Amino acid sequence: MSPWIESEVIVMGAGIVGASAALALARRGHSVTLLERGFCGAQSSGVNYGGVRRQGRSLAQLPLSQRAHQIWGELPALIGIDGEYLRSGHLKLARSEADFVALQGYEAASRDHGLDLQLLDRAALRARYPWVGEIAVGASYCADDGHANPRLVSPAFARAARQQGARVIEQAGDSRVEHDGQRFILHTQSGLRLRAPWLLNCAGAWAADLAAQFGEPVPMESGHPAMLVTEPLPWVMNASTGVEGGGIYARQVARGNCVLGGGRGFALDAQRARPGQSAVLAILRNAVELYPFLAGTQAIRTWSGTEGYLPDHEPVIGASTTQPGLLHGFGFAGAGFQIGPAVGEALAELVCDGASRQPIEAFSIRRFQVRHDLASNH
Amino acid sequence: MSAVVIVGAGPAGIRAAQTLVEHGVHPVLIDEASQGGGQIYRRQPANFTRPARQLYGFEARKASALHQTLDALAGQIDYRPGTLVWNAEHGALDTLRDGHAAHLPYQRLIIATGATDRVLPVPGWTLPGVYTLGAAQIALKHQGCAIGERVLFCGSGPLLYLVAYQYAKAGAKVLGVLDSAPFSAQCRALPELLEQPATLGKGLYYRAWLSAHGVPVHQGATLERIEGGQQVQRAVWRKGDQLHDTECDALAFAHALRSETQLADLLGCAFEWSTLNRAWLPRRDQAGRSSEHDVYLAGDGAGIMGADAAEMAGERAALALLQDLGQTVDPQRCRTLEKRLTRIGRFREGLEAAFPFPEHWAEQAPDDLVVCRCEEISVGELRAVVGEGHWEINRAKAHCRVGMGRCQGRMCGAAAAEIIAHCSGKALHEVGRLRAQAPIKPLPFGVEHDA
User: Fold this and answer.
1) Any idea which architecture B119-255 has in CATH?
2) What's the CA gap between B165 and B206, in Å, rounded?
3) pLDDT the model gives residue A374
4) What are the start and end residues of each CATH 3.30.9.10 domain in chain A?
5) Which of A74, A232, A340, B93 lies 20 to 30 Å from B63, alpha-carbon distance?
6) B117 forms bridges with which residues in the sheet?
7) How far is A258 from chain B (nearest CA, A)?
């Protein structure tokens, strides 16, 4: 038998949430083990679109998202690389007057949160962003939103955690989790044994199993975004883009490649996903009306990932209601990359201070228990 | 009912199609090239009139027979030249032809996607005028062009001597052949090579012919770097302790071939490590059945065995497919094909011994050498990422973009794996293989498609 690996906190899942929680805990001097089934930042945290955007989030998420915005601004000091993070501005496009009205409504509702959104009518949009297709009738612009390279950023959080003293274990395989009344006891598939009084469930799309094991089932489903990248193109896009009501989102990286997403792929197995031919062809057909300069260029690679979606598209963040010492942070509905560092920090605050600086009550796992209780009463 | 589909109209694909038709099954035959024959028996454009003997030399009879077989199948197969298979999922292929995308469900599929050159970069390899051996051969065979006026051929493998011979025969000035394999290795491999005396004889003939015609052949000679401003001017090479240089205006190099396995990968075929090929290859049984019940593998796309073996493997895979459809096939023929393939397999091992992989390449590759030319990633950048602990090739790709460009690692994947293995101290097979991601080759925006 391998010797026990003892720590104060075990973080399950080295995506951007788990790795930033481990980093925050390590910086505050706690002994923490970051446990990853595969490789750090190799799932959704590492293969997502790379949008670093506050605009469009639910109002409940904005305090955390604003905190994350500060963290993103200090990225090199925190994780040692800039991660190709660029505050390019984020342009949310409206394809109809009704969509533009929705953007106006969001601007009004979110005004107190300091996003400084600018509404651009058709003429202003044309004047400032002539590369946007005629189909767009207006847009909402957030100057300080942007994009980054998730392949680099998410693993760098884990690397920084290790440099701050966290124990990082990759390729652990699946883990069996128990609680002996005092501590969590984990046996990994790779043969390791770990013990800690705290356990952070940051296992992304796979987090529901652990929650269910401790009596907190959640109706989480996996989603698989379809994404592709073009060959390097002349510099055109001076903002990251999205579309009100959903559609094709796109950004251009410094090297010139355009990254596009839109539509849904399919699961290959429990851990791997592909975008699928229909979603890829739909992007290739439809992107050109939003981004006409793409006509005739070529897509060189497509990919997908596995993301956890709860029915209300809000994450679960906070303490377990059934198991002391267990904290959750998962289910970001495809929008966890920007907010992830602040969520990790909030989870660390729960361990260290018993409360987080930003409000997280809206994301309690309790909201699903209520429904189960109601269901059992009928 | 959906069709039986063959991807690739080279020696394996054409013989598979012929075998199916002989048994009353009329397949769809998809090929990326505009004319069938594969790389080895590539046909010239319609208005070219060189005789087969001039194009294919000793192989003229085989090439013509294969072309005639394909021509005779017209009307009995659904032949789709100029068609790229860019994706496969859920029992269907996604194709692109003349800017039009289509979706083709299959009942059974034979993958005969062939091979490309295995490239081990040296400084200067991205200069204009540097080609792979396969590309140099295609320029000559297809369009009757030489890659330059004063050409040097380098690397290793049987193709090295063949291409040099073909160039010299066609009237090009061949400055020399630099074979990284030492003569002693070729002597040691003789017993296995005698398994195929005719093929061995041809190889010896090419070499003798080159020597007789004043083309210097250097064994145990390693290309160190290629120099030039706007284009190749000089090759610097080493034999023993001595550095030499040769002025040239074009150079072709490669170290044997690598299988094109992306389609099998996208379809979920199980892969296994092949020490002989130094590559992860889709697993196939003796008859060519993959791990997937409806997918068969034939030819160099599932391990390098050469054109003769590809013809046999194509036929054998088709017979397996027919058997699996419940048809009666000649068991004697199956046994004969398998026996011949086994014999060629032994010869193939001899070839590997005669033209051994240059084991020191990864160690000697300088840090500033570009390994991934699409993304312009240097050996040093890759080593730095490995030094940070990323020894799995897909993780190394994620961290430094090696293999992430237009070619999707088809050109640089083998070299990158060698660097990672050497640098991390892992065995080559532990480094893994680049996962295939659609599109297999670039796909344009604005593509038209059904549905």
Assistant:
1) 3-Layer(bba) Sandwich (3.50)
2) 6
3) 55
4) 90-143+225-304
5) B93
6) B257
7) 12
